[in-house]
Design brief:
Layout lengths: L8 H5 L6 H12 L7 E7 L9 E2 L3 H8 L6 E4 L5 E2 L12 E5 L1 H4 L3 H24 L4 E4 L10 H10 L4 E2 L2 H7 L9 H7 L2 H11 L7 E3 L6 H12 L5 E4 L3 H4 L2 H14 L6 E5 L4 H7 L5 E4 L1 H4 L6 E8 L2 E2 L10 E5 L6 E5 L15 E2 L2 E5 L2 E2 L6 H12 L7
Parallel strand pairs: 6-7, 6-11, 8-9, 9-10, 10-11
Antiparallel strand pairs: 1-5, 1-12, 2-4, 3-5, 3-17, 12-13, 14-15, 14-16, 17-18
Helix pairs in contact: 3-5, 5-6, 6-7, 8-9, 9-10, 10-12
Length: about 400
């Protein structure tokens, strides 16, 4: 029987998804009993994939799931959802995670750790940037159809943590503890032969708690179908969705403004306009004042990854690092008002903020100690609230 091309959780934990050079290096190191002492390996980001000045750390919960009970090492990390920069005020690279322990216990897990945080952080950051651009607009993750279904819950979780209001994925919503969000597909309207027949059947069949949102671009002009949807459902209609294909869009903002005007003058001011299809940052910025919400797909689900790298920076008491990296076990301190970062040696007392002279707080906290989880993992809803609170800070800009 043909199966899905995915690794099972036990295979990931066993190092089966590593790059082969780590497996070979492990054999060599074990043969010579090296490194004999504990090492410190830190995860940093040299640069963002796009002209961003901050990112959102996402994926910690899966890192914990990967590393719990694997060995007797310690893991320190920023809280999931922390907004971070690549360097502190002096240009020192900011560690997001560090692992301290016997290197051969986790050498084969570098590849999956990076995979867990690189993709999730990229999607989460893209979502958070859209939320920063449109703080009061409904944002829903619609992009899982563009990605492998095995990772759809991860993608939707990253978008939700980044500030999105909902997700379309059924399993994703179940894991997040929220109801799934969605409207209706074009195929429903095509199957019934008309918007009127499909919308009436939708309304008659589905429970009251499912919002009545009509897709209004299948056969005719968006304005005409939107007016028709209002006439069919009246006050029961919550919104219309415009998913106009690129070949028909023209000036999409003008289409949206036209629909809004025609609904308003007919007394349907409470019917929102929801837009989907190729929504990117520029579209959110341009259209946010004219619509109630966006269904965002590929721009989040296939967002550019944030390229973390893991590097050895200390062996025992000896400072080590390859070219371009800074040696030594470190702590990251941040001013909660100015969001200025200060990287210090791990055991140094936190410095005051270089901008406002206020006290800073350490961001790298113990997550796993001697192989056991010591950190109370927050829910996705709590992490989302943490991200939204940080986004309010005026120092976080687009």
């Amino acid at each position: 029987m043909v199966d899905f091309h995915v690794a099972k959780p036990d295979e990931i934990r066993a190092g089966k998804t590593t790059d082969v050079y780590f497996s070979r290096a492990k054999k060599v190191l074990e043969a010579f009993n090296l490194p004999a002492e504990k090492v410190v390996a830190e995860f940093t980001v040299s640069s963002f994939p796009r002209p961003w000045n901050w990112g959102v750390f996402c994926g910690l919960e899966e890192v914990v799931a990967l590393l719990e009970g694997v060995g007797g090492f310690d893991v320190y990390a920023m809280r999931e959802g922390t907004i971070f920069q690549t360097e502190d005020h002096k240009g020192v690279s900011i560690p997001i995670i560090f692992i301290e322990g016997k290197y051969t216990q986790f050498i084969e897990l570098e590849t999956p750790i990076l995979g867990l945080i690189c993709q999730a952080s990229g999607a989460c950051t893209t979502a958070a940037r859209m939320r920063k651009i449109a703080p009061k607009t409904i944002l829903v993750s619609f992009g899982i159809r563009r990605m492998h279904p095995a990772i759809s819950p991860m993608i939707d979780r990253a978008a939700f943590i980044g500030g999105f209001d909902g997700v379309s994925g059924v399993k994703s919503a179940e894991l997040l503890g929220i109801p799934p969000s969605g409207t209706m597909p074009h195929s429903l309207i095509i199957s019934f032969g008309s918007l009127e027949a499909a919308l009436k059947a939708f309304d008659e069949t589905l429970p009251e708690d499912v919002p009545r949102v009509a897709l209004c671009d299948t056969y005719f002009d968006e304005k005409l179908e939107s007016i028709k949807a209002c006439e069919i459902l009246g006050e029961r209609l919550k919104a219309v969705r415009l998913d106009t294909p690129g070949s028909r869009r023209g000036n999409f903002k003008s289409i949206i403004k036209e629909v809004r005007w025609e609904l308003d003058i007919r007394g349907y001011k409470d019917v929102g306009i929801f837009v989907s299809g190729g929504v990117k940052e520029d579209a959110v910025l341009e259209l946010k004042d004219y619509v109630q919400g966006f269904g965002v797909g590929t721009s989040v689900s296939s967002a550019s990854t944030i390229d973390y790298a893991m590097d050895l920076v200390q062996i025992g008491e000896k400072y080590v690092a390859k070219r371009g990296k800074l040696s030594g076990k470190k702590q990251v301190n941040r001013c909660q008002e100015c969001f200025k970062y200060i990287v210090t040696k791990f055991d140094e007392k936190p410095s005051k903020c270089p901008k406002c002279s206020k006290e800073t707080i350490p961001l790298l906290q113990p997550i796993i100690v001697n192989g056991k989880v010591t950190y109370d993992l927050p829910s996705a809803i709590q992490i989302r609230e943490f991200v939204l609170e940080q986004l309010k800070n005026p120092e976080i800009t687009i």
